[in-house]
Design a protein that fits this description.
The protein is an alpha+beta fold. It is about 20% helix and about 35% strand. The chain has 8 helices and 23 strands. Strands 17, 18, 19, 20, 21, 22 and 23 form a 7-stranded mixed sheet that branches. A 4-stranded antiparallel sheet has the order 13-5-14-15, covered by helices on one side. The structure holds 2-acetamido-2-deoxy-beta-D-glucopyranose (NAG) (6 copies). This is C-type lectin domain-containing protein.
Length: about 375
C-alpha cells in the first residue's frame, strides 16, 4: 500500500483522491497530525524548550523511524540540533520500555525470574529470556528474536542465532524485520513459544525490553531511541540533553544542556475536546472552531490519536468515520475510502445510525456507537 502526504486543504485532497482512485489504488491520503519545525537560532536546551512551548507545542518528540525521516526532511542545515529528550539522573528514574514503538509496558511479576530485575555490579538495562526474564548488561552478547509485522517468509518471529549486543540485535531487527520481539502478546504467543522450544537445550535470548532514565519533554512515554553508538555511551558521561546529528543520518547523541544549538519543535494538530457531544455535534464543533473531526488512515496516525484519547474523560472518543447506508460503505469524513481499520472484535455494526468511536483505554480499538451517545472527541487544527 502506498502512502502519500498532502496538505489538509480540502480541495487538494479531493482532487488527489480522485486521481488516485482513477489509478485504482487503495492509498492513504494523509493529512499530517503534527508538524516539525527547525529553528536555526542557537539556544540552550531549556531556552529552546521555552521557545517551542510558546510558539508551538513542545520540543520535538519522535515516535519511530517514520518520524525521524520527517524530522530530517524539515531540517534546513546539516548540523547538530536539540530534540525533546533529556536524562533524569538518579537510579530510581529508570523506566522499562518495549523496543517496538507503541507497545506499552505494564509490570507483571510472574514474567521475571525470582529476585529479578536486580542490577548487578553495573546497571543492567536490557532483558534476556530463557523460561523467565532477567535483566542483564546491554553489552553482553546473546542470540535474539525479531518480530516481523509483514510476516516475511510467512513467519511472525525470526530467531537469529548469532550472539550480539542488545543494541546490535535491535538494529538488525529494525533493518531486516520490524523490531525486537516486544510485548506480552508477542512473547507469550504460541508461535513464539514454538520457536523457543525448537532450541534444545533452551538458550538465553534478548527480547525487546530495556530501561533508561531518558524522558520526552512533553511527558509522553515514546520508547523510540536512535543513539549513535559510536558517540554515545550511556553511563559513562553526564550529558543530559539529546541532540540529533543531522550529518550522521540523524542518529542521536547527548550534550551538556547549556550548550547553544539549533533545535526542532513540534506542533500538534490534534486537540482533545473534553466535552460530551453526539457525533454530529462533535463534527460541527470541529468544523466551526478548527478544521475537522480527526480521521485515521494508517497505523502511525492511530498511534498519535490514541496517545491523545488516553486523556479523555469518557470511555470512548468519536472518530471521523461513519457508515453510509446509501452507498453501503464505510468512509472517512475527509472523503477517503477506508483502507486502514482497527475494529475491536465484534465492534463493527453496519447500521445506518452508527458512527465510529475509539476506546480510550485498553488497545484503543474502534467500535460502532449509536448517534445519540455523547463522548469527548478529537479535532484537527488548521
Ligand atoms: C502476566 O504474564 C502472564 C504470562 O507470564 C500472563 O499469563 C498473565 O495474564 C499476565 N498478567 C497480567 C495481569 O497481565
Ligand atoms: C503462506 O501461508 C499461506 C497459508 O497459510 C500459504 O497459502 C502461502 O503459500 C504461504 N506462503 C509462503 C511464501 O510460504
Ligand atoms: C508514562 O508511564 C508512567 C509509568 O509507567 C505513567 O505513570 C505515565 O502516566 C505515563 N505517561 C503517559 C503520558 O502515558
Ligand atoms: C543518564 O542518567 C543515568 C542515571 O539515571 C546515568 O546512569 C547515565 O549516565 C546518564 N546518561 C548520560 C548520558 O548522562
Ligand atoms: C462526560 O461524561 C463522563 C462520563 O461518561 C463524565 O465523567 C464527565 O464528567 C462528563 N463531562 C462533562 C464535561 O460533562
Ligand atoms: C440511545 O437510543 C437508544 C434507543 O435507540 C436507547 O436505548 C439508549 O438508551 C439511548 N442512549 C442515550 C445515551 O440516550
Amino acid at each position: 500500500m502506498k502512502e502519500k502526504s498532502f496538505s489538509c486543504d480540502r480541495a487538494t485532497m479531493q482532487w488527489s483522491l480522485f486521481l488516485l482512485l482513477l489509478m485504482g489504488q487503495c492509498v492513504f491520503i494523509t493529512c499530517q497530525l503534527y508538524e516539525y519545525h527547525f529553528i536555526k537560532e542557537q539556544m540552550s536546551w531549556d531556552e529552546a524548550r521555552a521557545y517551542c512551548r510558546e510558539k508551538y507545542t513542545d520540543l520535538a518528540k519522535v515516535f519511530d523511524l517514520t518520524d525521524m525521516r520527517r524530522l530530517q526532511d524539515s531540517a534546513q542545515s546539516q548540523t547538530e540540533a536539540w530534540i525533546g529528550l533529556y536524562n533524569i539522573t538518579g537510579g530510581a528514574n529508570r523506566r522499562w520500555h518495549w523496543s517496538l514503538p507503541g507497545k506499552e509496558y505494564t509490570e507483571n511479576k510472574t514474567c521475571w525470574r525470582d529476585g529479578e530485575p536486580n542490577d548487578g555490579a553495573y546497571p543492567e538495562n536490557c532483558v534476556r529470556k530463557k523460561d523467565k526474564w532477567a535483566d542483564y548488561s546491554c553489552t553482553s552478547k546473546f542470540p535474539f528474536i525479531c518480530y516481523d509485522e509483514m510476516m516475511k517468509d510467512n513467519k511472525t518471529f525470526h530467531l537469529i542465532e548469532t550472539s550480539v549486543t542488545w543494541t546490535q540485535a535491535q538494529n538488525y531487527c529494525r533493518q531486516h524485520h520490524t523490531d525486537l520481539a516486544s510485548g506480552l502478546d508477542q512473547i507469550y504467543s504460541e508461535e513464539f513459544k514454538k520457536l523457543l522450544n525448537s532450541k534444545d537445550p533452551k538458550v538465553n535470548l534478548w527480547i525487546g525490553l530495556f530501561r533508561d532514565s531518558w524522558r520526552w519533554s512533553d511527558g509522553s512515554n515514546f520508547s523510540f531511541r536512535y543513539w549513535d553508538m559510536n558517540l554515545f555511551n550511556d553511563g559513562l558521561n553526564n550529558r543530559k540533553c539529546a541532540t540529533t546529528l543531522l550529518e550522521r543520518s540523524g542518529r542521536w547523541s547527548s550534550a551538556g544542556c547549556d550548550q547553544r544549538k539549533p533545535f526542532f519543535c513540534y506542533d500538534d494538530k490534534l486537540i482533545l475536546i473534553r466535552e460530551n457531544k453526539t457525533w454530529e455535534e462533535a463534527l460541527n464543533y470541529c468544523r466551526q472552531k478548527h478544521h475537522d473531526l480527526v480521521s485515521i488512515s494508517n497505523p502511525h496516525q492511530q498511534r498519535w490519536v490514541q496517545e491523545r484519547a488516553k486523556k479523555a474523560s469518557t470511555p470512548f472518543v468519536w472518530l471521523g468515520l461513519r457508515y453510509s447506508c446509501t452507498l453501503d460503505l464505510w468512509f472517512l469524513i475527509n472523503d477517503n475510502r477506508v483502507c486502514y481499520e482497527r475494529w475491536a472484535s465484534g465492534g463493527k455494526t453496519e447500521d445506518c445510525s452508527t458512527y465510529v468511536a475509539m476506546t480510550t483505554g485498553g488497545q484503543h480499538e474502534w467500535v460502532s456507537q449509536k448517534k445519540n451517545e455523547t463522548f469527548n472527541f478529537i479535532c484537527i487544527k488548521h
